[in-house]
Amino acid sequence: RYISVTGVQTCALPILLAHDCVIAWINGHTHTNQVWARTRADGTGLWEINTASHIDWPQQSRIIEVADNADGTLSIFTTMLDHAGLLDGANRTDSVLALAGLSRDLAANDWQAQTEDLRGETTARNLELLVKAPAGYVAARADRSGRTGRSGRGA
Questions:
Q1: pLDDT in tens, 18-27
Q2: Of 84, 80, 125, whose CA–CA distance to 104 is shortest?
Q3: Which helix H or strand E contains 139, and what residues bound it?
């Protein structure tokens, strides 16, 4: 059964917001790079990070990293990556890079998506998103620090 994007958000978002250990919801349901702050009643929240599809131009991937700021917050870093396939029009399949280039050619020539920019706004690409560290994480971090005598940051 098909569930619309609005239906997914209506069903999933309340469940995710009910758990303060959830700091991000990473999805691709709109095929466009977008980011939204989702807030809980107590003022904390999570980030919804929507990433474009690999089948659509510009075929970007997103690296997501979480860093402990050691001040009760976490930073979620999102970095967009382009693959190394060339747009040379050769339409070769004799190597991984040539095949990636053919894939990029096909994505760029999608006649149904000529007016859309699926990269999204620049404010939804390479970001640092700040979120309050969940209470359970902070307690576990304090416990680790007490046992090891270290701050818990790094190895």
A1: 999 999 999 8
A2: 84
A3: helix 135-148
